[in-house]
C-alpha cells in the first residue's frame, strides 16, 4: 500500500520569508511519480511538478524548488521569498507507474500555507 | 484550452435525496478520474475511466454511487440515496493518453463540487 504524509497541517509566515513544506512517502514500488499540487481559494488543484522515481535531481522553477531524496523517501517543496499569492493548500501526491494503466494518485493530507503581508 | 469543469459548484441536499455531479474533462483527454475529500481528511480516489470504460472503481464507497461516462466525453457521478457521510468535495481530473510517457501521469483537476448532505 502507498502512503503520503505531510506532517505540517498549517504553516504561517511573513512575506519574503522562505518556507519548506515537507512530504514523506511510503511505497514498495520502484517505479512511481511524485507530484505537488496547489489549491488556491478558488478550489481547483493546480499541477506544480512531477518527479520520476529514477530522477533524484533537484528542480528549481523561479521561487519554487523541490528536493527529492529516495534515501529518506522525502519530496520537500521550498518557496523562496514567499508572497501573499502563495497562500493556498499544498498537496503532495504519489502514483504508481509500473502497471498496465495509469493508476491513481495517493494524496497527503495537505498543508495550509498562509503568507502574511 | 479550457480546463476541467465541474457542475454544480455547490449542492445542498437532504439525506435520502439524489444528486448528480457532472464533469467535463479537457478536450482529448481519454482518462477521467473522480476523487473525494471528506472534511479534514485527505483526497481519496474513487474511480478511473478510460474513454467510456471503467478502468478502476476500487475507491467507490458503496453501491449508492454510480458513475457513467457515455460516449467517452463528460462523466456523471450520481449519489442515490445520499447519506450524511457523503458530504465533502468531489473532484474530477483528466489526463492524456500518450502511451506510458510521463505526461500521461499528469492529472489536471477541476474546481470540485462541494456536496453538503443535511
Strand fraction band of chain B?
A: over 45%
| Elements of chain A, N to C (H/E) | EEEEEEEEEEEE
Cα-based radius of gyration of chain A, to the nearest Å: 14 Å
**Roughly what is the average pLDDT of chain B, rounded to an integer?**
93
Oligomer: heterodimer
Which stretches of chain B are poorly predicted, pLDDT < 50 over at least 5 residues? Answer: none
Instruction: Name the average pLDDT of chain A.
Output: 93
Distance between the termini of chain A: 41 Å
Proportion of residues in helical segments of chain A: under 10%
- The secondary-structure class of chain A comes to mainly beta
- The H-and-E topology of chain B, N to C, reads as EEEEEEEEEEE
β-sheet strand percentage of chain A: over 45%
Inertia-based shape of chain A: globular
* Most residues in contact, chain pair and counts: A-B, 25 and 32 residues
Task: Please describe what this structure looks like.
The complex is a heterodimer of chains A (117) and B (118). Chain A has strands spanning 3-5, 10-14, 19-21, 24-26, 32-39, 46-52, 59-61, 64-69, 74-79, 88-96, 106-107, 111-116. With 117 residues, chain A is mostly beta strands. In chain A, strands 2, 5, 6, 10, 11 and 12 form a six-stranded mixed beta sheet that branches. Chain A is globular and about 45 Å long. The relative contact order of chain B is 0.32.
Amino acid at each position: 500500500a502507498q502512503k503520503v504524509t505531510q506532517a505540517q497541517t498549517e504553516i504561517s509566515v511573513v512575506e519574503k520569508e522562505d518556507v519548506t513544506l515537507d512530504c514523506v512517502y511510503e511505497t514498495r514500488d520502484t517505479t512511481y511519480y511524485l507530484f505537488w499540487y496547489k489549491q488556491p481559494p478558488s478550489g481547483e488543484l493546480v499541477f506544480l511538478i512531477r518527479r520520476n522515481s529514477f530522477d533524484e535531481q533537484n528542480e528549481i522553477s523561479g521561487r519554487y524548488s523541490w528536493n527529492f531524496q529516495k534515501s529518506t523517501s522525502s519530496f520537500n517543496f521550498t518557496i523562496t521569498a514567499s508572497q501573499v499569492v502563495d497562500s493556498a493548500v499544498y498537496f503532495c501526491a504519489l502514483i504508481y507507474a509500473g502497471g498496465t494503466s495509469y493508476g491513481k494518485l495517493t494524496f497527503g493530507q495537505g498543508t495550509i500555507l498562509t503568507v502574511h503581508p | 484550452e479550457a480546463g476541467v469543469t465541474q457542475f454544480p459548484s455547490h449542492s445542498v441536499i437532504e439525506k435520502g435525496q439524489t444528486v448528480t455531479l457532472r464533469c467535463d474533462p479537457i478536450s482529448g483527454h481519454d482518462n477521467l478520474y473522480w476523487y473525494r475529500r471528506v472534511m479534514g481528511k485527505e483526497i481519496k480516489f474513487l474511480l478511473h475511466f478510460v474513454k467510456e470504460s471503467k478502468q478502476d472503481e476500487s475507491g467507490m464507497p458503496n453501491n449508492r454511487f454510480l458513475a457513467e461516462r457515455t460516449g467517452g466525453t463528460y462523466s456523471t457521478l450520481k449519489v442515490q440515496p445520499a447519506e450524511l457521510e457523503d458530504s465533502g468535495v468531489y473532484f474530477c481530473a483528466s489526463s492524456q493518453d500518450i502511451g506510458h510517457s510521463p505526461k500521461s501521469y499528469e492529472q489536471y483537476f477541476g474546481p470540485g463540487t462541494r456536496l453538503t448532505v443535511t
